C-alpha cells in the first residue's frame, strides 16, 4: 500500500500549483446538478435516498426531519457549487456531508458484515462521490499550511485520487459477485450480457490500478467516468421512460449520475487549473 501511495504522488508532477480560485468546469456543474436532484427528491418524498442513504435504525424517530435536513444540505451544496462566489463553502459543505454519509451510513455496514460484498459496494459508490467533492474542496482551498495541508491543495487532490482508486474495486467486484443481478440490468438489445457484466467490472479494477500506479491515470479516470455515464444512461433512463413515476428509478438515476460525476471531477483534476484574475 505504501508503494502504491508513493506511486500515486507522481500523478500531479505536471500540474501547476493549485490556486484558491480555479475555473469552474462542466464536471463540477454536473455534480452540482445531481446534488440538487437528490435534494429535490428528498423534499418531494420526505425520505432519504433509499438503499444508498439508508438510515441504520428502522422507523427512527425524527427520520422525516433528518431526510429534510439531508435534502436541504444537498440542495444548498448543489446550488452553491454553481455560484462562483459560494463554490468554496459549498465544496466544503459537500465534502463534510459526503464524509459523514460514508462514516455514519456505510462504514457500520462494512464493519457489521465485512464478508458481504454488497456492503463494500455501497461504501465504494458513495466514496467516489466523496472523492469528487474532496477534489473540489482541495482545489478551492489551494495549498495551505498547518493542519489544513494534508487535505488541501496538491496533497488533498492526491489523497482524493487514492480514495477514488481504492473505491473502484468495491464497485467492480460487485459485477462478479452479483453477476445475475448485473446481467439483469444490461439492456436487452446488447448481446453477451454476462460478458458485459464482467467487462465493466474488470474495467473498474483496471482503472484502480492505473490511477494508483500512475499509468495513464487521467485517461483511466476519464474512461471510468465515461463508462459510469453510459451505464447510467443505458440502464436508468429507459427505466424511467417505462415507469415515469417510479421513485426507485429516479433515485437510482440521480445517484448513478452523481457517482459518474464524482469520477469525472477526479479525472478533471489531472488538468492544470486556470486561475481567475
Any overview of this molecule?
This protein is mainly alpha-helical and 277 residues long. It is built from 10 helices and no strands. Helix 7 (179-185) packs across helix 8 (193-213). The longest helix is centred in the middle third of the chain and has 26 residues, at 87-112. It starts with a helix and ends in a 9-residue tail after the last helix.
Compact overview of the structure:
The chain has helices spanning 2-8, 26-45, 63-82, 87-112, 117-141, 153-177, 179-185, 193-213, 217-242, 247-268. The chain is mainly alpha-helical and 277 residues long.
Please describe the structure with a list of short key phrases separated by commas or semicolons.
globular; mainly alpha; 277 residues; disordered N terminus; single chain; 10 helices
Q: What does the main sheet amount to?
A: none
User: What is the alpha-carbon Rg in Å?
Assistant: 18 Å
Strand content: under 5%
Give the structural class. Answer: mainly alpha
Shape descriptor reads: globular
N-end to C-end Cα span: 40 Å
Q: What is the count of helical runs? A: 10
Percentage of residues in helical conformation: over 70%
Which segments are poorly predicted (pLDDT under 50) over 5 or more consecutive residues?
A: 1-22
Mean pLDDT: 89
Amino acid at each position: 500500500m505504501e508503494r502504491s501511495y508513493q506511486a500515486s504522488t507522481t500523478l500531479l508532477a505536471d500540474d501547476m500549483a493549485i490556486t484558491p480560485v480555479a475555473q469552474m468546469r462542466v464536471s463540477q456543474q454536473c455534480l452540482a446538478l445531481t446534488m440538487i436532484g437528490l435534494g429535490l427528491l428528498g423534499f418531494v418524498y420526505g425520505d432519504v435516498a433509499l438503499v444508498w442513504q439508508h438510515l441504520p435504525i428502522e422507523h427512527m424517530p425524527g427520520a422525516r426531519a433528518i431526510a429534510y435536513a439531508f435534502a436541504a444540505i444537498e440542495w444548498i451544496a448543489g446550488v452553491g457549487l454553481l455560484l462562483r462566489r459560494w463554490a468554496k463553502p459549498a465544496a466544503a459543505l459537500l465534502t463534510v456531508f459526503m464524509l459523514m454519509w460514508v462514516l455514519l451510513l456505510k462504514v457500520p455496514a462494512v464493519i457489521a458484515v465485512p464478508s458481504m460484498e454488497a456492503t463494500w459496494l455501497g461504501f465504494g459508490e458513495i466514496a467516489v462521490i466523496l472523492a469528487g467533492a474532496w477534489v473540489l474542496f482541495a482545489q478551492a482551498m489551494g495549498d495551505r499550511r498547518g493542519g489544513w495541508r494534508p487535505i488541501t491543495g496538491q496533497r488533498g487532490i492526491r489523497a482524493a485520487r487514492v480514495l477514488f482508486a481504492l473505491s473502484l474495486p468495491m464497485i467492480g467486484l460487485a459485477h462478479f459477485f452479483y453477476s445475475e443481478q448485473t446481467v439483469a440490468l444490461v439492456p436487452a438489445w446488447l448481446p453477451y450480457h454476462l460478458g458485459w457484466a464482467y467487462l465493466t467490472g474488470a474495467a473498474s479494477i483496471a482503472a484502480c490500478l492505473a490511477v494508483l500506479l500512475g499509468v495513464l491515470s487521467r485517461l483511466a479516470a476519464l474512461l471510468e467516468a465515461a463508462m459510469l455515464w453510459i451505464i447510467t444512461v443505458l440502464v436508468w433512463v429507459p427505466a424511467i421512460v417505462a415507469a415515469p413515476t417510479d421513485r426507485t428509478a429516479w433515485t437510482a438515476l440521480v445517484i448513478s449520475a452523481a457517482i459518474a460525476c464524482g469520477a469525472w471531477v477526479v479525472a478533471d483534476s489531472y488538468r492544470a487549473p486556470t486561475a481567475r484574475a
